[in-house]
Amino acid sequence: MLPLQGMKVLDLTQFLAGPYCTMVLADMGAEVTKVEKFPQGDDSRRLGPFINGEGYCFAMPNRNKKSLALNLKSAKGREIFLKLAKEADVVIENFRPGVTQKLGIDYEQVAKVNPGIIYCSISGFGQYGPYSHKGGFDIIAQGFTGFMRMTGEPDGRPVKVGIAINDIAAGATAIYGILGAYIHKMKTGEGQYLDTSLVDAGLAWTVWESAAYFGAGEIPEPTGTRHRRSTPYQAYKTKDGFVTIGAGNQRLWERLCQQVLKRPEWIEDPRFIDLATRMENIDILEQEIEHILRQETTSYWVQKLDEAGIPGGPVYTYDQALNDPHVEAREMVVELDHPKLGRIKTIGIPIKFSKTPLAIREPAPLLGQHTTEKLKEIGLSEEEIERLYQEEVVYAKYGEYVKEEKS
């Protein structure tokens, strides 16, 4: 039995923040039904690469889910949604604030038919505040939160974090919010409304940066790969690439000098004698370390660091990371069959449960793949379902009610 088996989730989200949240819930056993517009579905279905008309990007965060294609702008579509919501534990949406009210599927309307519902909204700036009406993709949030001004090389242009960090932060925040609300519901029977945003979630991750600002008025600036509070703690150039070194305390610093760099005299060097002086002379220290490291390869130095018990590693390209034997051993790349994409690879599950191990059970659904199934669950007859297809209240890209397959 999976940890969240029995939880029913209606997922109105698209792109990444919401789908990442519901992917994790689905991985843990929740029954997640994506409620998608049609004929295009979740906007991430439009992102390539494409195989047989299906997008690979959609397949990544939408595994283990079902798809119901429903016209929420129609009265019948709204009625169907509320019937599904009556039996659900969680509804999650990432429309711009105000849209769910216009559609008549907001928290207040859902709570009328299901007072125990946990209803979670993810938006760019939140449901209230001066900017709540603004749209907010990850790049907007990265700029707004200051991330782009603290990332990259000194004196360079603002740099985006390499992944959609605010999207993932918001998705992760929604996960723990939903789980907390679910535990509360189990104890009391009460549902509730949850509101998070890309901006709120991103700012919540600025732990060290906020401490420096509130404590000393320090505004974080880009430092390349350097740590703002510790050194040696960065990536250094080697003969054939880069190596990361995390000698973040005095004991590790002394090991680095003695066992790896073979410079024991640096331990008593007044420029490097403690962390404060090393930070004052960080430019000189980087030059001195790289002068040594450039003489051998990255793999040579990784081995030396490992032998000395000092945290360190290679600076990989993404393909190198995915093909590393350790990543393979941790099952962080797994394969499964998809009805259109064929045999595909996807990122594995990052947390390992000893009693209730998780698994990627199903590939991402085709658009409307489970429409008929979900309609039958709320008691509709074959004749009623066929009429809904004909009236374009519901949709399936492939299936018995499709007159012609669309690509």
UniProtKB/TrEMBL annotation:
Keywords: Transferase. It holds the Pfam family CoA_transf_3. InterPro entries: CoA-transferase_III_domain (IPR050483), CoA-Trfase_fam_III (IPR003673), CoA-Trfase_III_dom3_sf (IPR044855), CoA-Trfase_III_dom_1_sf (IPR023606). SUPFAM superfamilies: CoA-transferase family III (CaiB/BaiF). Signal peptide: none annotated. The keyword Protein transport does not apply. This is Crotonobetainyl-CoA:carnitine CoA-transferase CaiB-like acyl-CoA transferase. The lineage of its organism: Bacteria, Bacillati, Bacillota, Bacilli, Bacillales.
